[in-house]
Amino acid sequence: MTDPVVLLADWLRGILIGAGLPQFWISVVMSMIGVVVLATVLLVLDIFLVWLERKVVARFQDRLGPNRLGPFGLFQPFADVIKLLIKEDTTPGGADKFLYNLSPIIALATVLLLWAVLPLSPTLFGTDINVGVLYIVAVGAIATLGVIIAGWASNNKYALIGAFRSVAMMVSYEVPMVIVLLIPVIFAGSMGINHIVQAQSIWYLFLAPVAALVFFVSSIAEIGRAPFDLFEAESEIVAGYNIEYSGMKFGLFYAGELLHALTIGAIFSALFLGGWRGPGAEQVPLLGLIYFFAKAIMMYFVVMWVRYTVPRLRIDHILSFNWKFLTPLALALVICTAILDKLLAGVSPFLYWLGMVVLNGFLLYLALSAARRSARQERMQADAESAEIHSTGAATAMH
After folding, report:
1. Are both 303 and 362 inside the same structural domain?
2. Residue 396 located in a structural domain
3. Phi, psi (degrees; rounded to nearest 5) at 121
4. Quick check: helix, strand or coil at residue 127?
5. DSSP state, 124?
6. What is the pTM of this model?
């Protein structure tokens, strides 16, 4: 009973063997059952996340949030789902109907696909491929494609502007995110997510805190959450790329965004927080499952915290921050980490940890110093231009 999921899977496999199915079809049926169960659990959890996010933002803004329908307002998300299901399904005139209807499916399906390589416990994972990190990068990029398709296929200029913004920002922030993903790979010596989790006798957050921060910030920008929600800026472009979507099609976009935020927490947990690892997790795999989701929800809370406390940034500032700060910092981190990893091979774990922490602190100091110098120069240039404008205006007035 320490691993009820595996116990139930063995029971189902025994039934299929007793029915006389060949081994190939047993594997196919068990895989399909696993996919359906995992997707169902995540979608039900997604409904709970709607309630959780609304309650959290209410507390941040000194409100109550949903508290009428059901205990503590827990039934409110189900009422919202029913409302979305019965709303009129419209398709804009002139829209590419196939791509228009395909985009919401892509937005949610790609998020579910990311969970296929995440180890939930020592014995519970979808598939253990040796290029799991590469899989996450590839599947995560498909979500960007779904946003672009939605904006283009809607036959709406505001939706297209939102899609253009997604190209400028989401693709840009994938660059530092992909770069720093190499750092857990260097530490573990493998691109397999399960192997990376098992190799974390010390959480990689403590070995490479700056790399973890760069990955976290880039991930928030890549999924388009505030303060990086430029392609869905309601006050500027009327809800962005999904303005023409109504009913459950819009609901799929919304569900995909919420679940993607939790997925970022789960990926961060696996790469930098030890995943399912914790006291007694190897002896009691159910504990590993609890540890994994506790870490993922903790990081999801941080994502919410950032979203509801930091104001939206200008798009030129966002892109400058990426290309002039995050990307060079990520490149320097990967290069220096790879070199130091070889130089410190064979030393004690404490010296290895100390060397990596000092390296991260030194590179962060250099990056912040360069950012301060650049900001100071821009302010001086802006002040000089302002003074020149004022002097010109004064001379014109005197003339």
Report:
1. yes
2. no
3. -160, 175
4. coil
5. B
6. 0.90
- Category of 72 on φ-ψ map: left (φ > 0), alpha (ψ -120 to 50) or beta: left
**Which residues, 6 or more positions from 261, have their beta carbon under 8 angstroms from its beta carbon?**
49, 223, 225, 300, 303, 304
Q: What is the DSSP letter of 73?
A: G
What is the C-alpha to C-alpha distance for residues 325 and 199, in angstroms, rounded to an integer?
30
CB-based contact 218:176 (threshold 8 Å): yes
Measured CA to CA, the distance from residue 201 to residue 204 in angstroms comes to: 9
> In a 3-state reduction of DSSP, which class is residue 121?
strand
Residue 302 shares a structural domain with residue 317: yes
**390 assigned to some structural domain:** no
- Residue 124 β-bridge partners: 121
Residue 293 token pair: 């989701």
Per-residue pLDDT of the chain (399 residues; tens, 9 = 90+): 667 777 888 888 888 888 888 888 888 888 888 888 888 999 889 888 989 989 998 988 888 888 888 888 899 999 988 998 898 888 888 888 899 999 999 988 999 999 999 998 888 888 888 888 999 988 888 888 888 888 889 988 888 887 887 778 888 888 999 999 999 999 999 999 999 999 998 899 999 999 999 999 999 888 878 788 776 665 666 667 888 888 888 888 888 888 988 999 999 999 999 989 989 888 888 888 999 999 999 999 999 999 888 888 888 888 888 998 999 999 999 999 999 999 998 888 899 999 999 999 999 999 999 888 888 888 888 878 777 777 776 666 666
Is residue 24 domain-shared with residue 102, that is, in the same domain? no
Classified as helix, coil or strand, 87 is: coil
| Token reading at 317 | 């500032």
User: Phi-psi region for residue 21, left (φ > 0), alpha (ψ -120 to 50) or beta?
Assistant: beta
Q: What is the CA radius of gyration of the chain?
A: 24
3-state helix, strand, coil in the chain (%, to 5): 75, 0, 25
